[in-house]
Please model this.
Amino acid sequence: MQYTRLYTGDDGHSYFEDVSVPLLDRGNIGAISEGFDVGQLMFRENEPGYDYDFHNAPARQFIILLDGEIEIETSRGEKRIFKGGDVLLVEDTDGRGHKTRHTKHQKRRSIFIPLNKSHD
Model:
Protein backbone atom coordinates (compact mmCIF):
# COMPACT_ATOMS: atom_id res chain seq x y z
CA MET A 1 0.00 0.00 0.00
CA GLN A 2 1.02 3.58 -0.37
CA TYR A 3 -0.02 7.14 0.30
CA THR A 4 1.12 10.51 -0.96
CA ARG A 5 2.75 12.81 1.56
CA LEU A 6 2.45 16.59 1.06
CA TYR A 7 5.03 18.36 3.21
CA THR A 8 7.01 21.60 3.60
CA GLY A 9 10.69 21.42 2.66
CA ASP A 10 13.50 23.35 4.32
CA ASP A 11 13.06 26.07 1.67
CA GLY A 12 9.43 26.72 2.74
CA HIS A 13 7.94 25.20 -0.44
CA SER A 14 5.50 22.29 -0.51
CA TYR A 15 6.45 18.94 -2.06
CA PHE A 16 4.93 15.55 -2.82
CA GLU A 17 6.48 12.26 -1.71
CA ASP A 18 5.15 8.77 -2.43
CA VAL A 19 5.38 6.62 0.71
CA SER A 20 5.08 2.83 0.76
CA VAL A 21 3.52 1.35 3.88
CA PRO A 22 5.01 -1.98 4.92
CA LEU A 23 2.39 -4.62 5.61
CA LEU A 24 2.89 -7.48 8.05
CA ASP A 25 1.49 -10.91 7.22
CA ARG A 26 -1.18 -11.75 9.80
CA GLY A 27 -2.22 -15.08 8.33
CA ASN A 28 -5.92 -15.60 7.56
CA ILE A 29 -6.88 -12.00 8.32
CA GLY A 30 -4.45 -10.65 5.72
CA ALA A 31 -1.59 -8.19 5.84
CA ILE A 32 -1.79 -5.18 8.18
CA SER A 33 0.46 -2.15 8.74
CA GLU A 34 1.75 -0.92 12.06
CA GLY A 35 -0.68 1.48 13.75
CA PHE A 36 -0.65 5.27 13.44
CA ASP A 37 -1.27 7.42 16.51
CA VAL A 38 -4.45 9.27 15.53
CA GLY A 39 -6.84 11.44 17.49
CA GLN A 40 -10.20 11.55 15.75
CA LEU A 41 -12.01 11.00 12.48
CA MET A 42 -14.07 13.58 10.58
CA PHE A 43 -16.27 13.27 7.50
CA ARG A 44 -16.27 16.10 4.95
CA GLU A 45 -18.36 16.96 1.92
CA ASN A 46 -17.56 19.72 -0.58
CA GLU A 47 -19.94 21.18 -3.10
CA PRO A 48 -18.96 21.20 -6.80
CA GLY A 49 -16.65 24.04 -7.70
CA TYR A 50 -15.09 24.34 -4.25
CA ASP A 51 -11.54 25.42 -4.99
CA TYR A 52 -9.11 26.63 -2.34
CA ASP A 53 -6.24 28.97 -3.23
CA PHE A 54 -2.84 28.60 -1.52
CA HIS A 55 -3.28 27.49 2.07
CA ASN A 56 -1.61 25.37 4.72
CA ALA A 57 -3.00 22.18 6.17
CA PRO A 58 -4.67 22.99 9.53
CA ALA A 59 -3.01 19.94 11.12
CA ARG A 60 -0.92 16.91 10.19
CA GLN A 61 -3.64 14.59 8.96
CA PHE A 62 -4.50 11.76 6.65
CA ILE A 63 -7.15 12.51 4.03
CA ILE A 64 -8.92 9.58 2.41
CA LEU A 65 -10.80 10.56 -0.73
CA LEU A 66 -14.03 8.62 -1.05
CA ASP A 67 -15.12 9.97 -4.42
CA GLY A 68 -14.75 12.94 -6.72
CA GLU A 69 -11.46 14.15 -8.08
CA ILE A 70 -9.11 16.98 -7.13
CA GLU A 71 -5.92 18.51 -8.40
CA ILE A 72 -3.40 19.61 -5.79
CA GLU A 73 -0.68 22.06 -6.77
CA THR A 74 2.45 22.58 -4.66
CA SER A 75 3.98 26.02 -4.17
CA ARG A 76 6.64 25.04 -6.75
CA GLY A 77 3.95 24.36 -9.39
CA GLU A 78 3.93 20.54 -9.38
CA LYS A 79 0.38 19.22 -9.89
CA ARG A 80 -1.12 15.82 -9.16
CA ILE A 81 -4.64 14.43 -9.57
CA PHE A 82 -6.23 12.46 -6.71
CA LYS A 83 -9.52 10.54 -6.81
CA GLY A 84 -11.67 8.19 -4.75
CA GLY A 85 -9.56 5.61 -2.95
CA ASP A 86 -6.42 7.77 -2.79
CA VAL A 87 -4.83 8.51 0.58
CA LEU A 88 -2.89 11.67 1.41
CA LEU A 89 -0.88 12.67 4.45
CA VAL A 90 -0.88 16.48 4.51
CA GLU A 91 1.86 17.94 6.66
CA ASP A 92 2.47 21.36 5.11
CA THR A 93 1.19 23.20 8.17
CA ASP A 94 3.63 26.07 7.55
CA GLY A 95 5.47 27.49 4.56
CA ARG A 96 3.84 28.49 1.28
CA GLY A 97 1.18 25.78 1.26
CA HIS A 98 -0.73 24.22 -1.63
CA LYS A 99 -3.80 24.80 -3.85
CA THR A 100 -6.75 22.43 -4.21
CA ARG A 101 -9.04 22.43 -7.24
CA HIS A 102 -12.05 20.28 -8.18
CA THR A 103 -11.54 18.69 -11.60
CA LYS A 104 -15.13 17.43 -12.00
CA HIS A 105 -18.42 19.15 -11.32
CA GLN A 106 -19.66 16.88 -8.53
CA LYS A 107 -19.71 16.73 -4.75
CA ARG A 108 -16.57 15.36 -3.16
CA ARG A 109 -16.58 13.31 0.03
CA SER A 110 -13.54 12.57 2.14
CA ILE A 111 -12.44 11.46 5.59
CA PHE A 112 -9.96 13.49 7.67
CA ILE A 113 -7.91 11.70 10.35
CA PRO A 114 -5.61 14.06 12.27
CA LEU A 115 -2.45 12.59 13.77
CA ASN A 116 -1.91 13.09 17.46
CA LYS A 117 0.56 15.88 18.16
CA SER A 118 2.95 13.42 19.78
CA HIS A 119 3.29 11.51 16.47
CA ASP A 120 6.58 12.14 14.62
In short: The radius of gyration is 15 Å. The chain has a mean pLDDT of 95. The chain has one domain: 2-23+42-114.
